């Protein structure tokens, strides 16, 4: 059974793109496949914000700030 794929374009810092390409080569897996697997893991977590919190570890934003911002949009 063939799976329909959608194209997704992401803009990331150059150093992140380099790391992603290097990791994909070492895993013999496309960056798209790695992202897809990561998204599936994130979506299966109890609190997706906890999984994303690491993305902001070097920025001045807290998990509570992210939640407050998300809840204010509801």
What does this structure look like?
This protein has 74 residues and is mainly α. It has one domain (14-72). The chain has four helices and no strands. It has helices at 14-27, 31-44, 48-53, 63-72. The protein is globular. 0% of the residues are buried.
The helix content, as a percent range, equals 55-70%
Per DSSP E runs of 2 or more residues, the count of β-strands stands at 0
Number of domains: 1
What is the overall number of helices? 4
Determine the strand fraction and express it as a percent band. Answer: under 5%
Summarize the main sheet: none
The structural class is mainly alpha
How far is the first residue's CA from the last residue's CA?
38 Å
Rg, alpha carbons? 15 Å
Note the run of SSEs as H and E.
Answer: HHHH
Low-confidence stretches: none
Mean pLDDT: 80
Shape category: globular
Sequence-ordered SSE layout with sheet pairings:
Blueprint: H1 14-27, H2 31-44, H3 48-53, H4 63-72
């Amino acid at each position: 059974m063939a799976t329909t794929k959608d194209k997704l374009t992401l803009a990331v810092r150059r150093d992140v793109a380099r790391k992603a390409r290097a990791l994909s080569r070492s895993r013999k897996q496309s960056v798209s496949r790695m992202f897809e697997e990561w998204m599936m893991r994130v979506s299966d977590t109890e609190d997706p914000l906890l999984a994303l919190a690491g993305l902001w570890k070097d920025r001045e934003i807290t998990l509570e700030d992210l939640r407050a911002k998300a809840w204010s949009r509801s």
